[in-house]
Queue: 4 jobs
Job 1
Amino acid sequence: MNEPQLPGPVGPAFTAAYLPYLERTLARLDLPMSERVMGAIADGKKWLANELEAIDSASPRDLRRGPLEIFQEAMRFPTAALVAEGVAPALRDIVAESALPGDVYALAPASSQDLGESVLEVHVAWGVARARALSGSLPESQPRSDLAVVPRSAVAEPDPLVRESLKVALEAAGYATTLWRNPAEAETSAGTRVIHVAVISGSHPVADALLEVCTREDIPAIVVCEIADDIAQARYLSLGAVRVVGREAFIGGAATMLPRHT
């Protein structure tokens, strides 16, 4: 079997965004842009470029983290410089502390959208390409008869670019997809066709209500988050989700997380 490859690099866009993002963030947080901090940012950019180059040259199935996670880790360079300058840590809530405990100045972006629309587009396109590349290396599903019902999934994700990447991952795993935009639409959908699994974005403004629909209709629900930390796990599992996963992990491994239907 040939190794699946991604069609284009993601590293240059993230690397180019590093300095402008930190300049904006340091200014917004009123943190010093000293010579020491600038030197640390330069070191961080070099490290980031090398790490992202490794992602771009690797096989999709070998990747254990995505470009956003690496970008977040690159915040350790200016963070160390600010610590050396004696700057007091930021006040962060428990969710932020749990997700990124080392990000004591709250420098790390929560999503690639924080880096600009162009980076978000590259990131989501990379996720779509990765899902398509992986579809050729996923385990073969059980043979279906001509009368077998293709399993159907519902996708609830407000961002069209992210939604596309989730749909590609689901379709690569053998699932047809339908869109849920609100609880009423979910109720109607569940009442007119069999939904084998719902994939709901943790950032969806009505995620909780959609999970209530899944509970009532006995539909397994997977919640996909930017960061699936302990707080997110506890919250969404308590609301009825059967699984809470990171977005990039889901895009890369949807076939291993979804119910099997033959």
Job 2
Amino acid sequence: MDGMHGQTDHKEKISDNVWQINEFSRKVDVHYNTIDRWFVRLEKNGIHYVNRVQPSDKKVYDQLDYEIALYIKEYRDKGWMLDPIFETLPNEFDLRPFPEGEEVSSTKIFDSSAAFKEMEEKIIANLKDEIVDQARLQVKQEFQQSFNELIEMKEQILKSLPEPEDKAAVREKRFVEAVTFHRVRAELEKEAAAEWAKKSENERTKRVGIFFKTEDTAKRADYIKDYVNEKYEERLKEKFDL
């Protein structure tokens, strides 16, 4: 293994650059329960002591603890067991001894209220993280559902709309319609004129003076107009197959 990873004077006052367990675990990028187990075990084995702040007796972690945690993480990732890693720590770090009068024992009596408070804070922090994650997941799912509904609604609207027509095709269609309208009217006027011609002379003519008769053009025009108006709509339906 490499040489000394970090040196620190444990006899000095606690540095301002310290972290509580949750912030420290995020810095190391290891779950705080795992971090806590590592350092509890180091203390139980009398290897390394974690500083506390008073009067709460809450653990705080400094740069030395950070380097030790990274070291443990590195060799855990390589597949090492904890005991062999812990055995190498005295050769790699200037470990922090226990304060004077502090017993090194797995049966050490802790301040129950402080321990309970620290445990409570860990649980609350964990619950907060879980609630935030759950809320984010729920918002993401609701957003995705709303987005999918909008996409589906858009597709339904597009399906209900008529297909867009080509401008050239529209112009051609209108031209054909105009020609058809004109032809239908011309056909009906021709038919009306033929029907008018079949009428008797008395119906078609009017007397001019005593001896002369002439075609009643006004009457003829009215007849043709009425004939066209009567049959125009039906004839258009026939032409357009309606």
Job 3
Amino acid sequence: MTFASTFEHDTGRSPQDEFGVVRQLLMAGVLGLALIGGFGGWAVYAQLNSAVIGRGAIKVDRELRLAQHLEGGMLAEILVKPGDRVAAGDIMMRLDTVELETAIAVRRAQLADMSAQAARFAAERDGLIMIDSGSEPQDAMTQELFASEALLLRQSQQERATTRAALGLRRERLQHETAGLVSRQASIGSQLSLAQVELERTRTLVERGSFAPSQLMQIESETLRLAGEQSEIASLIAQNSAQVEEITLEIDRIQSTAALEAHRSLREIEPRLMELRQEITALETRLFRSVIRAPEAGIVNEVPVNTVGQIIAPGETVVKLVPEGADLVIEFQISPTDIDQITIGQEARLKFLSFNQRTTPEILGIVTHVGAASQLDPNSRAEYFLAQALPVKNDALPEGTALVPGMPVEVYVKTASRTPADFFLQPIRDSFRRAMTEE
């Protein structure tokens, strides 16, 4: 028996089969060595880009303009939404104005009523027969109020005119009566003069004995009667003259008293008129401010108050506006252990997490600012450095998408290139270094 037959008998396989197995093993070994060598060469010579990763959000390089309301109120209408572009002065919101309009209407009615009264008082003070209603156009209610006050003025003037006319008639009667008394007084004066002459003549004749004393007594009695009547008439004339003078003063006093009372009433009403005008001006200013307008041109970034009927507190922000021309920047946080690898001017890849990651590519950016000192996160109590990056171009974004302040961003800041071997061996070297430095 030969060796080949013996080997075949022992293994159950032919030498050709065994040779094929050995060849396959050799080929596998060569392939493995080639793979190991290729991987080793790649790990030693290939250059991989490393990056520092930070998270942040989009911000604007200028402060957002805040639209606020001074007094607050109830929201009646919302005309803008985030992303809308507005021009300076565009209406963005309206507040409910029912209460303001009611208050203005009440005060305007009071002002119209008091203005009509003031016009009547001024006419009475100046002795005018008509009310000055002013040159400004008036509504129907104001015209009715002025017409009513004009009627009161006419009635008041008619009453005073009637009183003055009655007093005038009385004065005329007294003057006429006085004129009769004066005539009678003159006649009696003439009679008295004659009687006194007759009395003197008779007294002489009685002394001579030509007349009886009784005749002298009759003449003396008549003379005394005429003198008494003359005194009585003089007294009546004086009384009538006093009454005429009093009536004249009363006629003048009626007009002057009316003018004085009108002047006092006007002085009393003028402060309230000024107060009402000031109140109306203040309410109209508030009514004007009930329309919230864009303080400048820009894009609506946020509408914190977004429910009709919601109550706005005084000074509350109702719209946040990105000013027109403001640049968008990426503000992100860097770990203190990586800050030494970040410098201004480094390239960065910006990944916007709000977009569809399968259809939205990363955008190239440039680091424009690195914080000089670390800051402390109030929530996590972790330290970080604040950095900023500026997108170089946004044309790579899908159509219909836009960068909006507040959008979250993941930033990959490119650092020095390293080989794969460096990545694999760095943790081992760091562990070995720490182990060699520990006591």
Job 4
Amino acid sequence: MSQEKGGKPGPVAQEQQPEPILPEQLFAAHTKKQIHPKAARAVAAGLIYVMGEILNGAYALRVAADADETGAKEIQPRQVDDAIRSDTELRRLLSAWLLERAPATRSGPQPVQQSVANTPDGALEESIDRMMGTINPVETVTLGVSAKSTLAGLLAVLMEKVMDAADVISTRTSSNVIYTEDVRAAVKVMLMGEMRQLADREISSATA
């Protein structure tokens, strides 16, 4: 590893730093409070876990599809929709999203949600790509453009849910800072059953 004088990493070492799946700056748009660094890691861990469940479900549905089906190598919005509907806990968590969004089978572009519009251009899509890379590193299945747009909108909705809940919980302690425990409590309010336990475990690991 290349190092400069004083023990600071040189340019080569800096280039080797992996891009975080969910950069902390994405969360700042959803609160006027300061976010403790560990709390930001907690938000990222919780969101990555839930989105991973959805992506894994959509991936499995895509792999199981007939090989001669049109777009069989691409995940489509209907697989995202079906992955949520087929899981009791995801369906409960995202029932309002399922009711309010346009049908997932529609091939045209999805309407831009306000929570998506408030994030840097392409930031959510880039995060979705990084998540997909951890599930499918050899790219045997890819994300269709419409599916990526759907997932980016879904990520924005979940991010807003977590941050709004954490903001309210931190207000109860008269704090102007969102801490890890605020995020952990917010995630526990959002999730139930096994998902709650597994998400909390991911948060604990990320903030240890």
